[in-house]
């Protein structure tokens, strides 16, 4: 699906096609490509930075063999568990086909974070390496993956915020239709978004920028200021917690440090694979 996204206050307009190319008639989506690039860059840079944390670079690749499959399961399981009613048949039984159909969407990054921490704990216990030292390195990869991954949300025209008239407001027909359908704007607001006089907060960019700042700070901490194992990991937890507090995942939430943001909104998401789009909301 092709979307035209504009930033009227900045004089910018983009025509976005979620499909990058096709292989044997099966579409490959930009979202999956961007996520994969973020993962590869995170692994590459963390391998280069590993010695300063006392981590053997080869251990990172060994960890990925277990962490990636676990994350792909957990990222779906977390969403299903907390939205179980969406996956029940009329008789109350579980619709297992829908649960395993990733292409319908419904992913939660919290599941991946939890699973990665568990896998890392087990891996460090087996390999007899410091969990906290490895975690200090690992949060660099989390920042990298999140700041790049948000641009996959942009390609899908999702992860946007509340209505605003700020110069960097984001507009598109699909956004206007979704905001109207969800009851966040009335007919006048719908038309204003179409006209470009109103738009929504580009929250995907806010989060990407927030993670970029976090990456710079944690990099400097690991290189110059780190005094003990676990310091960078603790910084990430505090940084992420502040972000979660400021931008709750519910429609009634709002980024408190950006003025006039009426709500925190996530549009239809796309699977972390490159195989297909999704239609359910994401908690990523």
Structural commentary:
The chain is globular, with a radius of gyration of 20 Å. The chain has one domain (2-281). The protein has nine helices and eight strands. The chain has 284 residues and is mainly alpha-helical. The relative contact order is 0.18. The strands form four sheets. Strands 1-2 form a two-stranded antiparallel sheet. It has a two-stranded antiparallel ribbon with strand order 3-4.
Strand proportion: 5-15%
Q: Taking strands numbered 1, 2, ... along the chain, how are they ordered across the largest sheet?
A: 1-2
User: Any low-confidence stretches, pLDDT <50, length ≥5?
Assistant: 248-284
Number of strands: 8
Count of discrete alpha- or pi-helical segments spanning 4 or more residues = 9
User: Alpha-carbon distance between the termini?
Assistant: 21 Å
Q: Please summarize the sheet with the most strands.
A: 2 strands, antiparallel
Notable traits:
284 residues, two-stranded antiparallel sheet, 9 helices, 53% helix, disordered C terminus
Brief summary:
The protein is mostly helical and 284 residues long. Helix content is 53%, strand content 12%.
Blueprint of the fold:
Elements: E1 2-7, E2 12-17, E3 19-23, E4 26-29, H1 30-49, H2 57-82, H3 96-99, H4 109-127, H5 131-155, E5 163-164, H6 173-181, H7 187-195, E6 199-200, H8 203-225, H9 231-246, E7 268-270, E8 277-281
Antiparallel strand pairs: 1-2, 3-4, 5-6, 7-8
